[in-house]
Design brief:
The complex is a heterodimer of chains A (263) and B (14).
Chain A (H helix, E strand, L loop, with lengths): L1 E3 L2 H9 L7 E7 L2 E7 L5 E8 L5 E2 L5 E6 H9 L6 E6 L5 E7 L6 E7 L17 E6 H12 L4 E6 L3 E7 L4 E7 L4 E3 L2 E3 L3 E4 L3 E6 H7 L8 E6 L5 E8 L5 E9 L2 E3 L1
Antiparallel strand pairs in A: 1-5, 1-7, 2-3, 2-6, 3-4, 4-20, 7-8, 8-9, 10-16, 10-18, 11-12, 11-17, 12-13, 14-15, 18-19, 19-20
Helix pairs in contact in A: 1-2, 3-4
Chain B lengths: L1 E3 L10
Classes of the chains: A mainly beta (263), B mainly beta (14).
Chain lengths: 263, 14
Amino acid sequence: NALIKQAGLLKKIIDAIKDLIDEATLDCDNDGIYLQAMDSSHVSLVTFYLKKNLFEKYSCNRNLSLGINMTSIAKILKCGMSDDTLLLETNNPIDILSFKFESRRGHKLSQFQLRLMNLEMERLSIPDTEYSCIIEMMCSEFSKVCHDLATIGDSMTITCTKKNVTFDTTGDLGTGIVSLKQGVVGSENDENVYAASIKIVKPVSLSFSLRYLIYFTKASSLSNKVILHMGEEVPLMVEYKIFNTYEEEAGYLRYFLAPKVNE
Amino acid sequence: KVTQAELSQFYPED
């Protein structure tokens, strides 16, 4: 049983991954709900963790693995309004997931049932990684950089040093480069400050496919900031933190993307 | 030549 105060939050999370992965299992235990799935080309991977405190009420008395088709769950979530409360429940035997939406004023109740699937998922083990560079920037800025550079080239090189982070690309029509200085990320005198907060152990430069990076920016509505984790010889981790309605941290959505390599 | 790596080159299967 999981009761979420704003159904729209779950919809945003599913919408941010449904174009990348077709199917996934929701692994539920008493602490929360975890998902891990790779895209069909095995180049990128998405994980999310929805902690117990994301929900108004949460109980799960035994570990469950719920096989979900992403297009189907997205269709059901679209039937609710974003400020409806949403109660998720499973039956016994566990072959359906039920969605009960209740409008804010309590005048409308709707219920949908999603047929669950038996999925044999390939699962990767992601070790705890000491990244060389951790870059925090505004989601809107990261999204704009990716979309702008994608009009020029197919891949983007991210280079992080102590002083700045640069994003550059090359295509048939020419080149593009965007550089963000190390500085405070956020608002200042009601003006957005477009800079990046950089924590660095060692400078890193890696290239990534813009097509995938653009998929990731669909999570931009979850949070103001995005955190890029980079290290030599490891996939990029793009992290969006998830907050509950009390603005407490209540989980994350993380994308992993294998770099382009010189052969 | 630049090629796209796969995730399994970096992370083992669970």
